[in-house]
Amino acid sequence: MHSIHDSQKLKEFLEEIWEKSFRYGQIENAIYKNFITDFDEIQTIPQALRDKLKENFQYTSLTVDHKATSKNDQTTKLLFKTEDDLLIEAVIMRHKTGRNTLCISCQAGCPMACTFCATGKLWLQKNLSLWEILDQVMYAAKLLNDEWGRLRNIVFMGMGEPMLNYDAMKLAIEAMCAQKKFDLSNRRVTVSTCGIVPWINKFADDFPQNGLAVSLHAPNDEIRKSIMPVDHTYPLDTLMSSLDRYTEKNNKRIFYEYIMINGVNDHIKLAYELWELLKWRLAHVNFIPYNAWEGTGGTYSATPKFIIEKFQKILLEYWIVSTIRATMWDDIDAACGQLARKKKDQEKKDEK
Ligand code: SAH
Questions:
Q1: Strands 254-260 vs 211-215: parallel, antiparallel or unpaired
Q2: What CATH number does residue 117 fall under?
Q3: Residues with CB under 6 A from ligand 1
Q4: What is the domain range of residue 36?
């Protein structure tokens, strides 16, 4: 079975069976613009072609294993199962302004082993295929369309490190921004990385218009190394020069994510260090209150809000803009990897 997102295969297939070339556009339109999920319902093409499509193409490779919507209806967490039985997560965040955002996974598990992260504890299970990435997008786009909403933003901030699945990520972004497909603006597709320098440089060249977010989490190497092993390979000075190159080239503000973990990276002196690090840079800091999960054995907990606000104030004195990520998903375990991890633990318990 081929994925319906595989345009090249679909075009070749239509040629092989001597279909007229305009059929491709009709199918594309049915899938991406009319959100038809069942080939039998594509009224614009003859039944014989629908049958052949069914035999050779599939609408999605993912099944929904679990779906949870937060009490305030703003966030929907999706746990998908791949055909090889791996769990991956995506999160839909609905905003009052209608700027709906989808957070997607690019890997099952993750090899980066950040100490605070549930996905890191799963290790790398596999790189997702281009189709598995697009199937997450298609599912969310359709769900939002059914609610009379629209998918406006995509962030690669789910499970995995996007720079380590670069080719699939690149093709996925191209499909997301293709007018005849998901039709998103490049500015609204953002990639988040823990800081893999050579790929950030490539990203800067390939995607001048897309957003870049960096999981910084500490303003010095000592603390950063203790929570993010990647800092041993790409320490802060190397990372920051690569980010400077990105800004010079693209003149775009970089989003710095900073998880606030109680007693680990939230000492007030670090706010000043953070300011030192970012003061001449085009930066937006996004503070993320740590979302505690049982796998860290209770070692990590969230920084109290008033301390995060102090950090914000200090940065603002020096004109560095920041936001605090709303924890609108607390009741559904929506931080990276938590749901997949929980499910896996549950399965292990059940086996015993
Ligand atoms: N590998 C990429 C993208 C995936 S992680 C990256 O590192 O940026 C997406 C974000 O969620 C990262 O900033 C990550 O550090 C953060 N995160 C992971 N676990 C978290 C938790 N328990 N609470 C809050 N944020 C978390």
A1: parallel
A2: 3.20.20.70
A3: 114, 116-117, 157, 161, 192-194, 215, 257, 259, 288, 290-291, 293, 335-336
A4: 2-58
Ligand 1 atom closest to Cα of residue 103 = 9
336 is catalytic: yes
Number of domain units in the chain: 2
CA distance 33 to 27: 10
C-alpha torsion sign, points 191, 290, 316, 311: negative
Active site residue 89: yes
What is the distance in A from the centroid of ligand 1 to the CA of 117? Answer: 6
Render pLDDT for 160-206 as a digit per residue (tens, 0 to 9). 999 999 999 999 999 999 999 999 999 999 999 999 999 999 999 99
SS3 assignment, position 324:
strand
My answer on whether 8 and 100 are in the same domain is no
Choosing from 40, 58, 76, the residue where a domain stops is 58
Is the separation of the CB atoms in 89 and 67 below 8 Å?
no
How many angstroms is it from 219 CA to the middle of ligand 1?
16
Residue nearest ligand 1's atom 13 by CA: 215
pTM for the complete prediction?
A: 0.93
Task: Please name which of 317, 324, 310, 252 lies closest in space to residue 281, comparing C-alpha atoms.
Answer: 252
Alpha carbons 143 and 141: distance in angstroms, whole number: 6
Tell me, yes or no, whether 324 and 179 share the same domain.
Answer: yes
